[in-house]
Design a protein that fits this description.
Blueprint: H1 13-29, E1 36-37, E2 48-49, H2 51-60, H3 101-112, H4 123-131, H5 146-153, E3 156-161, E4 167-172, E5 185-186, E6 189-190, E7 196-197, H6 199-211, H7 230-241, H8 249-274, H9 281-286, H10 294-305, H11 307-312
Antiparallel strand pairs: 1-2, 3-4, 3-5, 6-7
Helix pairs in contact: 1-2, 5-6, 6-8
Length: 314
């Protein structure tokens, strides 16, 4: 999809055409009760509005230049690498209890494209979104671990460097990293043990915590982090590197390792939060979390219910 319009004048026909294409994409993939996250500088992805309001906001203020991968609106960090139409044998494939053919076709479309079904039936969710617009709210029920959510709500004072090497002071929340103009990155300092330090370390940690919650980027249906394709990890790292100064091989090693740890922890969190041990497998599948494709959740549940897997988590 052409995104060159993002840096064009707001009064140009190209900008308006591109904005409408963005809205078409966002409302096709992440609509909740008729609303999506607004990407304008004032709302900062935290407030949810109708199409008309989001359009007005992004006509009156420039679309964020750095937001070229629309992760909060249904696009995966790994692009075509997330295509799961040809499932590797390393994936969990024993999926039982699938619904009828029409529903199965819908699930296939979700797996092949960027579609994340976040249209939640519970009225409480949209009420919660509207009543807490100044804080971080995940897409779907309580789908983000508490420690990650706390990091998202905090402002971090960091140094930001541009392509000319000019450094300025910055004050960012995790979600605002996506809005950094193209070519501007957060400076990250590492200690002698190759660990990030300072406020930038906290911002990076929260950012890496959010990235792994995008199940289109890192599907939870792989048996282990080692089975996740290197192409997924490489594409994701390149997107992270576009926002943080992580130019050394040792920096990349840290990020990939941290992503793996976060991914494993997130899977434990999801099973503990959404799988009800007092219910049958079929009942749990019927009430699957809506922000995860059904087939992915079913495969993950079957993996967790295997006897050898239970032993690992005892």
């Amino acid at each position: 999809m052409d995104k060159s319009w993002i840096t064009m004048s707001r009064v140009s026909p190209e900008y308006e055409k591109g904005l409408n294409a963005f809205l078409d994409f966002a409302f096709a993939h992440t609509i909740v009760k008729g609303k999506i996250r607004c990407a304008c500088s004032c709302c900062g992805f935290k407030r949810w509005h109708t199409r008309e309001v989001v359009y007005d906001h992004l006509i009156c203020t420039q679309f964020p230049h750095g937001y070229t991968i629309w992760t909060f609106h249904g696009e995966s960090l790994i692009g075509d690498a997330s295509n799961t139409s040809n499932i590797s044998q390393d994936r969990i494939t024993d999926i039982g209890g699938l619904p009828d053919q029409d529903q199965m076709q819908d699930m296939v479309r979700e797996a092949v494209g960027f579609n994340r079904n976040v249209e939640i039936e519970a009225n409480e969710f949209i009420d919660e979104v509207e009543s807490t617009v100044h804080g971080f709210q995940p897409e779907g029920f309580a789908s983000i671990p508490d420690d990650v959510s706390k990091q998202c709500n905090k402002y971090w004072k960091v140094d930001i460097i541009d392509e000319q090497g000019v450094v300025r002071d910055g004050r960012l929340k995790v979600l605002e990293v996506w809005s950094l103009p193209a070519g501007q990155r957060v400076v990250v300092h590492f200690n002698a043990e190759a660990q990030p330090v300072g406020n930038a370390a906290g911002l990076l940690s929260g950012f890496l915590g959010i990235v792994v919650t995008e199940v289109n980027t890192f599907p939870i249906s792989y048996r282990s982090w080692d089975k996740v394709p290197d192409s997924y990890k490489e594409a994701c790292f390149n997107s992270i590197k576009a926002k943080f100064c992580l130019d050394r091989d040792i920096d990349k090693h840290f990020v990939i390792k941290k992503l793996g740890k976060n991914w494993r922890n997130y899977r434990v969190f999801l099973f503990g939060r959404f799988y009800k041990v007092e219910k049958t497998r079929e009942q749990n599948l019927e009430k699957y979390p809506q922000f995860i494709p059904f087939d992915m959740w079913a495969a993950f549940v079957d993996y967790r219910l295997e006897q050898k897997t239970k032993v690992v988590f005892l």
